[in-house]
Structures are given as structure tokens and as C-alpha cells.
Amino acid sequence: MEEFDLAVIGGGPIGLFAAGYAQLHGLKVVLFDSLDEVGGQPQMLYPFKQIMDIPAYNEITAKELISNLRKALTKQVTIKVNHRVNEVIKNETGFNIDHQFQVRSIIIATGNGAFNPKKFPVKMNPAAEQRVHYFVKDPAIFKGQTIGIFGGGDSALDWALELANVAKVKLIHRRQEFRGLESSLTRLKKMKNVEILTPFLPKEAKISNNQLQITLKEVGSQEVRTERFDQILVAYGFRADNRVVKNWGVNLSGARIKVGAEMKTNLDGIYAAGDVATYPGRVPIIGVGFGETQIAINAIMRELFPEKTLTIHSTSM
User: Fold this and answer.
1) What is the band of 138 on the pLDDT scale with cuts at 50, 70, 90?
2) More confident position, 305 or 20
3) Residue 36 assigned as binding residue
4) Is 85 flagged in the annotation as binding?
5) What pTM, to 2 d.p., does this model score?
6) 271 labelled binding-site residue
7) What percentage of the chain reaches a pLDDT higher than 90?
8) Which CATH class is domain 119-234?
9) Which one of 35, 92, 247, 299 is at 20 to 30 Å from 117 when CA atoms are compared?
């Protein structure tokens, strides 16, 4: 049985920052993430997007932010990827996690929860499925190709803007109107190597002449057209789920965890920070989540070490 002072559940930017801040205070930390790498949605959905509301940075890409947070972690932090926390049991010395880890306290930083991409709604054989992607980690692999992007939200528009630097892009959406930023759509409309097709839904997909041939049907009419792509990206959104925490006895408000002033949940020793947490007036941005982890960890230090004088400022350490 491995023992730790703190378990951080969720390896996105908030979880990574929480682990780093906890190690600064001398806590032995284990960090869990259900994906095969840390970084959460910023790393998986928009790694190349410029983020402009992170303290001390005018702008920084999501990939750079995650890299910086990851580099700050020392051997005091044990990272467990591909580990979805299923069971948390309260005991005399804290909590038992999945019958493998004994921890004294927990911070839940799962954001919108475990998320799975909504699949492309067309039956395909394995050869065709290999050309369908739901994440973009390295735009360079699409260089010189014709890429179809399906979706109308910010992820679809961001991917289109980034891939337009290296490929020919066709953006397909089921409505005339897009949910993503109007400024992003305006930029795309000015690009010569970007074609926007609306309102269309995919109906068939197969490999033809070493390309992915997709039949599109216009919404509200019988018009059908065929488009060919080297590969496609699907940005139909994600099914997020935080409901597993209910099994641990944590109170939810909708899909979020209710917390008090110190980011405490209804269970002593369990805290929540970032977008998974809710309280009146909360703003869902990364910088707010960073501050919430600091509040939670200071509360944890007071709880675990009541006899110690708590050093709050790093300049005093």
C-alpha cells in the first residue's frame, strides 16, 4: 500500500498546479489522471491555442503552459496516468483509493470530468476509421493534405485556423451559424485554402483511391455532394462525467461539487478546485482555479499539521 499526504485527482492545469504548490509545502503527493498523459482538455483539445488570461503571461500556448507546470514537479510528486479513480473509502488515517493508495487528504481537480469524444456518426470499416481523429497533438502530421473538420464550436474553428497553416481545410457544419467565436470564423473566411460547407451532415464514408470519401447531405433538402479528404477531425464535443464522486459521498450541485470558503466539500479531508467546483459567483477560468488550489492546500496544511506555524508566502520558505 503506497502512502501519501495528498492525492490530486485530475491532471489538467489545475491538478498540476495543485501538485506543484503542495510539494512546495513539503507534502508527498500522488496525482491521478484517467488519460494516457497529463494536461487535461487544454492539452488534448487545443494545445496550440494562445491563452491570454494566465497570470504573468501576456500569452502562452496551452501546450507550453502544461509543459511548464509539468517541469515544476519534483520526485515528491508521483504521477499515475491511465488511472481512473473509482473508489474512495474513508478510514481512520484518511482515505483508501482503489485499494492501492492510502492518502491523508484529497483535492478533486477533474474539471468537467472524465470526457470522451462524441464519435463520427457514420459506420466505417477499420481502414476508414484510421483516418478519423478526435484530438490534434501535432499539426505537422497533416502537412500538405486535404483535411475535413466537422463541427461548429471553438475547437473546430481553432483546429481549422491552426491546420490552415500547413494544409487545405474544409470546415463542415450542420448549421449556417457557428457556435465558436465570430472573430475566428471571420479569419477563416478570408483564407484561400479554407472552404466552409454548411449546412451539411455526413451520411456515408469509405476509402476510395486512397482517400476518405464522405457523402454529405444538405440539411433541409435532398442535395447530396461527395468530398474527398486525406484525413478528418471530428469536433462534435465531449461527454463529460463527474458523477463518480457521488459514490464517494461528495455532494454535487448539478455536475459540479459544492464547496465552502476553504474549497472544502461536505466531507472532511476532501477538497475541490477548478471547474469541477462551484460556489456563488465563481468564474470558470484557469487563473481562478490556481488560486483555489492555494486556498485548499493552505487549509490542508492547517488540518494535517495544526502544531506547525504555516508559511504562506514562498519568499518566507
Assistant:
1) confident
2) 20
3) no
4) yes
5) 0.82
6) no
7) 78
8) alpha beta
9) 247
Q: Which segment of 132-141, 183-192, 241-250 scores lowest on mean pLDDT?
A: 241-250
Question: Is 226 marked within a binding site?
Answer: no
**Could you name the CATH architecture of 2-115+239-316?**
3-Layer(bba) Sandwich (3.50)
Domain boundaries, the chain: 2-115+239-316, 119-234
Average pLDDT over residues 272-298: 95
Euclidean distance between CA atoms 73 and 117, whole angstroms: 29
Whether residue 146 is annotated as binding a ligand: the answer is no
pLDDT tens digits, residue range 230-272?
A: 999 999 987 666 778 888 999 998 889 999 999 999 999 999 9
Lowest mean pLDDT among 123-137, 219-233, 238-252: 238-252
Q: How many CA atoms lie within 13 A of 105 on its CB side?
A: 26
Is 57 annotated in a binding site? The answer is no
